[in-house]
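Records of this kind hold a single protein each, on a pair of labelled lines. With that in mind, the following record should read easily:
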Amino acid sequence: MTTVPVVDISATLAAGQPVGEIVEQVDRACREVGFFAVVGHGIEPALRAEVLERAVEFFALPDDKKRALAIERSANNRGYAGIAGERLQPDLPGDLKESFDIGPELPADTPNLSPLEGPNQWPDQPGFRDTLERYQDDAIDVARALMRIVAAANGLEETHFDACVERPIVNTRLLHYPQVDQRTSDAQLGCGAHSDYGCLTLLYHDGTPGLQLMTVDDEWVDVAVPDDALIVNLGDLLQRWTNDRYRSTKHRVIPPTERDRYSVPVFFNPEWNTEVRCLPNCVTDERPARHEPVLAGEYLQSRFDDTFIYREEASAMRKVVTP
């Protein structure tokens, strides 16, 4: 069991800018661990509890009601994926979890709509949409504040990333890991070993054990955080941006044996057309750029195609029919 670094960002949120030792604390956590826990984030306990309640209620619905909102019915990767609907570790069976994805609600005729934006699918569940959208809005505010801290930590103006996260690509996901009779081997995991694709992930969960991260010594350790904390981990795009100065750490979820596990990650990413190029302050003669520039949206979409079973199958079908 390891306790990841804990950072209180309340002073930064109150001031509207990075203050005190927060920049140094976040920078150290990003370089050494790639995970940290945020307290003082301002998301009310009642709202955090409510979003988990909505998750429990949703996943308790009959299968036909959940599958009526199947993610493959969505043009922009929103909706329900059943058990083994995603495979985050290619050499293993599909993940032992079910999920439901939303993002910022945008009409299908919104100008310059990217393939990962648009309308959501919503269940006929009282209070569901209101709760998830309020939680998502609060999490986005926290993520924007963290990006200002990241900018300052890399010797940039704190507003450096503001323009590219004005309309960020965001996925808020409800996750349900069913209880198993005994702790499984590595043959099938609740969530296969992977690094996240994008910029920042903010995770809140119900306290049930299962989340593990890989240390710099390639050992898996269970993650412990304060009850009121958000777990923050970095994604591949932020590692690329910082020229590997920051770590996009591999992690996984072991299927729970005590009870079902529920969690709510919010994946926060820059706008589709953002060019992710190694930051100038992270490139030196001794440490030249290690990554070619990529467009954020294209990179994210390619990773979704690799891990969601329905997208993988559609991609394979396209290759078969292409002359």
